[in-house]
Amino acid sequence: MDLQARVERLPAQTARQLGGVALLIAVLIGLLQWGKVTPLRQFDEFIYDQLLRLTAVPVSGSAAMLIDIDDNSLSEIGQWPWPRYKLAQLLERAAAGRPAAIATDILFPEADRTALNAQQEAYRKEFGIELGFDQVPKALLDNDVYLGAVMAEYGVVGAVHFLFDQENVSGVSLAPPPGIALQGEVDLLQLDQAPGILHNTFKIQSQLKSNGFVTIEPDPDGKTRRVPLLMRYHDQVYPHLLLAGLMKIVGTDRLTVGHDGFGPVLKIGPHTIPVAKDGSMLLRYRQAGAKYPTFSALDVLRSERPIPAMSGRAVYVGSSAAGLNDLINTPTETQFSGLNLYAVGLDNILGQNTLREPAWWGEAAFLSSVVCAILVAWLFINSSSMPVLLAGSTGLIVILLGASIWMLQHLGVYLSPSSGLASVMVCFTWLSLTRLTIERKQALRWLELVSNTQRVAIESMAAVAETRDPETGGHIKRTQSYVRALGEELAREGKHLDILTPEYIEWLYLSAPLHDIGKVGIHDSILLKPGKLDDAEFHQMKQHARFGHEIIMATSKSIKGDNFLRVAGEIASCHHEKWNGAGYPVGLAGEAIPLSARLMAVADVYDALVSKRCYKPAFSHQDAREYLLKKSGEDFDPTVIAAFVAIEDKIIGIAERYKDDGAIEEGEE
After folding, report:
1. Pair (314, 408) in one structural domain
2. Does 16 share its domain with 150?
3. Rounded CA separation 529/536 (Å)
């Protein structure tokens, strides 16, 4: 394309109309972002996760020390739950290292049935036998009393868990933890109110001097990006276990609420913690695979001397054992030990490396959307140079992303660029298509530009799905080439000539990469699961066909007339339908299934069969061919299968040309 191509200046009235519509689009995007409405919320979370990964750094020391009841500890000492005296011994050994604070991420809501007094009671009821333990100190007869006494002696912070799905009436009246009588600008906070609480047994809880809750709710996509530092239960305020441990380190019982230019802050001694209105703190995770200072519980119990590494640190006791299932999904890792959250949060605070989202982020998102739309519209109205339009819009995107990265790295502030990016992309796309209609004299040049833009947009959208789906870029190139080859063969045979025009076949090629775009709406826990999906998970996975159709159709509404997005919508929605009507999402059968989807179904299944996946080896072409023939007339259109057999040499050549190792044979266009 000639980059110096120029278009005519727009009439004043047309320019005003375009500017007005662009402004309306920007206002709508800004309001949707302000309200965190899907899919802008998902787009924002995706951008945030990418920026967090980009700016993540390795672990370089930690103020926290973790004692992990890991799989090795369970294997050597015994399966969970351990007798409470064993946990008391663990806490005593930890306390010998003179830590600044000890907190336990373990809850004991039921009495210890392994205790000697529990055994006495059981034998008395079952057999009428009175067991005697005259040589055992009285303190060791009841494990709960013993554990509570040890926790009280060393000032261990106990755990409680808040319930939001039920209201419970506790048998234990808990006093507010010390230091949680908030002072300062308390009205800045709107803390969550928990209707119920789960706490330790009375014999343990009544001896504790301080408590911290361990309740953390992930975001709707299943990822944990923040931790609530404060919560209300009845008329009392409780700290998270992370915050309770910090208060022990600082040695203060004062918690002051203040604010700065970005929103509310909590002040604890010399430390300032930025929080949201609900009292939650964003976590700045380290690079994937980061290792935090950790001792196995087994090593601590076997240690005959105090462990110097614990001196002056906050020690958190918990478990990463697979059987206890304390693993979470984060922006940087999918299998992250919940125990590590304490090290992450404490390092963020003590290392002055906290993250925050400004309290005025909604206003900023709205303003960003409007300003970007005005600038893009101004470019289209006042410039007749195509390179200027492209460079100006691209420059806005670079500025938005660059500013967000700079603020994240240097200010610890995440100011979302999502609404601005969406405004630039939507307005650019809409104005481009509108101007194409207006500038009919230069339609050929504009068509070439938009065609290239479409290819970039399709590859970008497919790349979004790729980042969340284990399929490769080679899969995209192969399937779109298979679909085009099958369409051309059917046309050569004189079949479906009313549909298979050269333009339609090109649309097939352009649309094929978007067939699984709907997978961006599927949770990572399902999409990345290596094993077989259960019925509920498979039902959720099937929704990607509907999601893909909705995404593409939402975009196509702004385009008048027939366009490649119609074909893309057909493929995304119907490529899992079967010839005999047994497919999904609707159960279409025969020629009621769009031809584009029938072609895509054969291409997609063939490529899946001959490609290696984490759950299967690659099939040979011959095995895949036999499978397709077997399913002809059942899953697949017999006419399409016949075309596949007729050009199988070409199919094999495409598979070889776009192999997953990235090698592309010479002659590729």
Report:
1. no
2. no
3. 13
Backbone angles phi, psi at 328, to 5 degrees: -130, 165
Three-class DSSP category at 85? helix
Domain identity same for 214 and 241: yes
Question: Which of the listed residues 328, 350, 372 is the one where a domain comes to its end?
Answer: 350
Query: Which residue range(s) make up the domain with 35?
Result: 1-58+362-438
- Cα torsion 379, 385, 389, 395: sign: negative
Q: Terminal CA-to-CA distance of the chain, rounded, Å?
A: 16
pLDDT at 87: 93
Tokens of 320: 């990463």
Q: Is the peptide bond before 99 cis (omega within 30 degrees of 0)?
A: no
- Compute CA distances 308 → 151, 295, 340, 551, whole Å: 21, 12, 21, 57
**Residue 185 domain-assigned (yes or no):** no
Of 195, 275, 272, residue with least CA distance to 230: 275
DSSP, collapsed to helix, strand or coil, labels residue 493 as coil
Q: Would 213 be classed as within a structural domain?
A: yes
Select the more confidently predicted residue: 128 or 535.
535
Cβ(237)–Cβ(230) below 8 Å: yes
Instruction: Give the pLDDT confidence score for residue 8 in this predicted structure.
Output: 52
Burial profile 598-631: b = 16 or more Cβ within 10 angstroms, e = fewer: bbbbbbbbbbbbbbeeeeeeebebeebbeebeeb
Residue 172 falls inside a structural domain: yes
Show the DSSP H helices in 7-64 as ranges.
12-34, 40-55
Least confidently predicted of 98-107, 148-157, 188-197, 316-325: 316-325
pLDDT tens digits for range 115-153: 777 676 666 777 777 676 666 666 677 888 999 999 999
Q: Looking at the whole model, is its pTM more than 0.70?
A: no
Report the pLDDT value the prediction gives residue 465, as an integer from 0 to 100.
52
Q: Which of 249, 253, 270, 244 is nearest to 312 (CA)?
A: 249
- Looking at the 3D structure of the chain, how many domains does it have? 3
Please give the Cα distance from 71 to 320 (Å, whole number).
Answer: 8
Residues 307 and 434 in one domain: no
pLDDT at 646: 95
